[in-house]
Amino acid sequence: MAKFRTQKSNFLRVKCVDCGNQQVVFDHAASNVQCIICGKTLVKSKGGKSEIKAQIIEVLD
Ligand SMILES: [Zn+2]
Prior knowledge:
mainly beta; zinc; about 40% strand; binds zinc ion; globular; 3-stranded antiparallel sheet; Ribosomal_eS27_Zn-bd_dom_sf; ribonucleoprotein; N-terminal domain of TfIIb
C-alpha cells in the first residue's frame, strides 16, 4: 500500500547542491526557503507545490 501520493503535502529532507548541507523543507512552502548555511534557494514557492531546487534525500510523512 505504499502508493505515491502526489496530492499530499510532504516534508522533504534535501541536500544543498552547493554546500552539502541537509535540512528539512516543506514541499508546499508559502515562501522561498534558503539553505541555512550558504543561502542558496532550496525551495521556490509557486503558490502550490513548490519547485525543489535541491537534491531530495528522503520524503518524510
Ligand atoms: Zn547550501
